[in-house]
Structure formats: C-alpha cells, structure tokens
Design a protein that fits this description.
alpha/beta; five-stranded mixed β-sheet; 7 strands
Length: 574
C-alpha cells in the first residue's frame, strides 16, 4: 500500500481540482467577496495594507492573493477577474488534501485516502473553496498546525515545532475566530489525556511531549508572524494594537449584536437535511454518520487497524469542542461550519475503514460495504443537478471515468492486497458523487437559495445592471469617466464597487444627498426617489434590479444619454 498511497493521494487532488476550477466566474461576487477584492486593490495599487479591527478579518487573504495577481499577467487591477481571486481559495481548499500526508501514519493509509476522498467530495468544501473569503485559509492553517503538532509528537523535531508556530500565527492572521480552534486544540489534548488516565487506566504524560526550548521557538515564530503581517511589514505598528482590540469588538457580535443571529441548529440543518421549495434535497449525513462511527471505534478500541488512538481521540474532542462553540454562539454564518466539518471528515475516513474491517466474516464485510455504496449513491442522487447541458455532462463524466478508474486500479492492484473489491467500488462511487457535487457547486445552484451554503448571495440580476451601465458608458463621450452616484442605506450596495471598478468617478451615499443628480444614478428602492416624476424630466427610470434577497435598486439615466443608448441598439426584427 505504501507504494501506491502517494499516487492515490495525488489522483484525489486532481479530482478535487476538476471540481473546483471550472468556470470560477459563473457565480456573481458575494458582497463579502467584493469587499475583499476591493481591499486587495489598496495593497496592489498603493502597496499598503491597514488592518481594520471592526471588519474584514485578517491580512492573510490579501497577501496570499499577490501570487495569483502575478500569475494573471496583468498589472492593472481593473483587468483582474473573479477567477483571479477565487483560485486563491481553490488552492487552499485542495491543499487540505495534501496536508493529510502529515497525519497518514497516525490515521492509517486507508483512512487517509478516505478522508482525502471526502475532502474532495464534500459539498461544503467544494462550494467554499470557490469563495473568496477567509474561511478556507483558516481551515487550512488549522490543519497545518494540527499536522505539524502530530509530526512533532512523533519525532520531537525543532522544525515541526517551528512549523506549528507558523501555522498558529497564520491562523491568527486569517480570522479572529482562530481563538475558538486554538482553544479547542488545547482542550482536546487535555480531554484525551484525561480519558486515557481515568477510563483506560493509562497514564499519558503530556509534559513528556513538550520541550521548553522548542515551545519557546514556536511562540517566537508565532509572534514574528503576528508582528510582520498585522504591522503591514513594519509600516503600521498600530495594526498590532488593533489586532488585540478586535476581540472585544467581535465578542459583542458573537453574543448576538449582529444581524447574523440564528438558532442553535443552523449548521445541522444545512449538513444533515436541507430542502428549499422546488429545489433538490441536500445532505452530508453520510460524512456525519461515518464520523460518529470513527469516534465510537476510537473510544471502544475496536477495528482501528494501524490508527493511533491518541490522534483519533484528540481529533474527536477537537471536533466536538469546536462544534459546541459554534453551536452555542448566537452569531452564525454557514461558512463557519467548515472548521468542525473538516474534523468530521478526518473522523469519517476512520469510520469508513472501520466498517470494512468490523467483521472478519466475508459476507458481513460485503454487507457493510454494500450499505456504504448505497448510502454514497443516495447522497449523490439527492444532490444531482438535473439542469446540466449535454456538454457539461460529458466533460465531468469524462473526468470521473479517468480519475476514478485510476483510483480503483491502484486500490485493487496486487501490491495492495489489504484492499478488497468493496473498497474499490466505494471509492469509484465516491468519485461519481464527487462529480455530481462539483456540477452542483459550479452550475445550476451556485447562486440559488435552494443551495444550503448560499447566504445573502448576490443575484445574477445585478450583472444585467452592470452590463447596461457599461453600454451607457460606451455611448457617452466621457466613457468610464462618466459620473455615477450610488445611493443606498447602510452600505448595502456591495459588491457594486467591484463591478464598477473601471469607473473613475463613482460616489456612494447612505442617503439621498442635496445634489443627487448625475448622468447615472443607482438608487435603493427603499428611498422611493422617483427622479423621473420631477417636472424638469431630466432623468428616466431605466430598470429595476435585485442586488440580493430583499435588496432592490432603481437605475436612473439622464434623458439625453438614454437617447444615445437607444440609438446604439440593433434594430428589432419583424
């Protein structure tokens, strides 16, 4: 198996890329994505970054976007596209699979491949890997820290301890909620040690795994990362103070001072069973159920094979603790579940392998395997998108046949005798399901409320508004120097600044200013401006557009400009 483990892992990386990379620009930018992209403009154009303790989270997203901007081949920010930004989070989402290599000797080779497969096929992991926000970076750096800590426990190497400090520092610099993951790590180790001592009768001396010099070196790396990134490479030392002040600000929001307040079952509704009107049924209950199997096996010491008890129990306590924290907090957004979902995926890898070795009797092993096949097929069927074109079907199923076939060939080879046909069939089915999940994340439900992971998503209708404004600019002598005024309450105009980034004279107001008139005005419907009803008739209302659920805008255009636009339209056919 050792011979084929590496190629199998990389094949799953290829499969994950096939899900995440196609048509990254298909879904309109979410308002958070638009904010992050415009904040990157300051770093790219002015070579300056300033951490804001009130909003926007940490600096890692902006700094790790720089390589993607270099690869784009353009120095002009206005030429960057959605793909430029979203491939950053795609890289970190796929990188989670590679990080599993650090845990492979503790989880076991079979378990690690299962965890890699579930990381690739998880609907949430696929969807948010294509989302330009901080969450996927936080999950990646958390996994890096856990993997480095495990490697250090195995060999007491200074290098692994330094890598753990780097990972923790990058967690801090990614998002304020890193404190929940860090706290869960510490509590998980304490709980695993207590379980071993009091219930198993085994003494686990945690202190024996710690070297004062090594821990000091790790903390030094953590402090260096904190100082470098939050001070904007030693150009803004006020960012260091702000990085500490932010916890007081976010504590109020976590307690309920936020519009994102939801009931305790918010995450479970999305993971276990979600159905919206005429849309499909969504569920990741298979991963949750297998994670529970992995936990039971770890605490009962049965059918674990080469899996390390300490590692799996620590992962179980870490996942449970993080899930409990996010469930209790009133503040909830759906991407926050990624942290404990990743822990569930690791445990699900253990659970899948446990079911296949739970009984030595061949017919029972086949029965457990068939049940897993049925469950995987059922999950794929529930999430299958029916509105794909024939071309899209052929593209994705071609990938599935090539990569899935390669995985089965590896797992059923003579050099991997510990695997059986059931395991190969399961991974083949998982590969097919992966294709279905990729199609769903990329195509019909990428901006639909029928998708459990869509949240305050920008409506595709806004692209029609942007196209019309671009068309008006083409017929105006001012071009992109045309004056545009946007009037909306409470900054609810995002992500319009991203879509209007090429216009040099755009202004934003949270009310109707004393002098509101401009060649183009985009006005919140709540203001009921009715500029076209004025006696002078200088403007007309040229459209009514939805920005996102319950947020609508009216487009007002100067009469003469509108006439020029109408003249530019092709004649209607009889």
């Amino acid at each position: 198996m050792n011979r084929w483990f590496g190629p199998g892992l990389f094949l799953l990386v290829g499969l994950a890329l096939a899900l995440r990379l196609p048509q990254l620009d298909r879904r309109p930018m979410h308002n958070d994505e638009g904010v992050n992209a415009i904040r990157f403009r300051s770093l790219w154009v002015n070579h300056a970054y300033r951490y804001d303790p009130n909003e926007f989270h940490g600096p890692t997203l902006e700094y790790f976007t720089v390589p993607s901007a270099w690869v784009s081949g353009s120095k002009d920010f206005n030429q960057f596209t959605e793909t430029t930004f979203r491939r950053v989070t795609v890289s970190f989402g796929v990188g989670l699979i590679l990080l599993l290599y650090l845990l492979a000797d503790g989880l076991g080779k079979v378990e690690t491949l299962w965890a890699a497969a579930f990381t690739a096929i998880s609907p949430a992991m696929v969807f948010y890997s294509r989302y330009y926000i901080h969450e996927m970076l936080l999950v990646f750096f958390t996994a890096l820290t856990l993997g480095a800590c495990w490697r250090y426990v195995q060999g007491k190497s200074t290098g692994w301890c330094l890598l753990a400090g780097l990972g923790l520092g990058l967690m801090f610099a990614s998002k304020e909620t890193f404190i929940f993951a860090a706290l869960s790590m510490v509590m998980a180790v304490a709980c695993a040690a207590a379980w071993s001592r009091w219930l198993d009768g085994e003494s686990l001396a945690v202190k024996s795994y710690l070297n004062v010099k090594h821990v000091s070196a790790a903390l030094t790396v953590l402090l260096l990362v904190w100082m470098i990134l939050f001070s904007s490479f030693f150009t803004h030392f006020g960012g260091l103070i702000d990085s500490l002040k932010t916890f007081w600000i976010w504590a109020h929001r976590a307690a309920g001072d936020s519009p994102h307040v939801h009931p305790w079952y918010f995450y479970f509704r999305r993971l276990l069973f979600f159905h919206h009107k005429n849309g499909p049924v969504w569920s990741e209950a298979l991963i949750v159920a297998l994670a529970m199997v992995g936990c039971v096996a770890a605490f009962t010491r049965r059918w674990l094979g080469q899996t390390n008890l300490l590692l799996v129990r620590t992962m179980a306590f870490f996942t449970g603790g993080l899930m409990l924290i996010y469930t209790v907090l009133s503040y909830k957004t759906p991407w926050c579940l990624l942290g404990f979902l990743h822990g569930m995926i690791l445990l699900a890898g253990v659970g899948a392998a446990v079911l296949l070795r739970a009984r030595r009797t061949r017919w029972l092993k086949w029965t457990s395997g068939i049940l897993l096949v049925v469950a995987t097929l059922r999950l794929g069927w529930l999430t299958y998108p029916y509105s794909l074109s024939s071309r899209e079907h052929y593209y994705f199923y071609g990938i599935l046949l090539i990569v899935g076939g390669g995985i089965v060939t590896l797992l059923l080879s003579r050099t991997a005798r510990q695997f059986n046909w059931t395991t190969g069939a399961l991974l083949m089915v998982a590969s097919a399901q992966l294709g279905w999940q990729a199609c769903r994340a990329s195509f019909p439900y990428c901006a639909s409320p029928g998708n459990p992971y869509v949240y305050a998503q920008t409506s595709p209708d806004i692209l029609k508004l942007v196209d019309k404004i671009e068309a008006l600019a083409r017929v105006s002598p001012d071009g992109h120097d045309l004056v545009v005024k946007v009037m909306s309450d409470h900054d609810s105009y995002w992500p319009l600044p991203w879509y209007l980034r090429r216009f040099t004279r755009v202004g934003y107001w949270n009310n109707i200013p004393p002098d509101p008139l401009a060649p183009i005005m985009i006005v919140s419907s709540e203001f009921q401006a009715a500029f076209d009803d004025r006696p002078e008739k200088s403007h007309l209302m040229a459209g009514y557009f939805q920005l996102r659920p319950q947020v609508f805008f009216e487009l007002y255009v100067e009469v003469n400009l509108w006439r020029e636009y109408v003249k530019s339209l092709p004649p209607e056919k009889d």
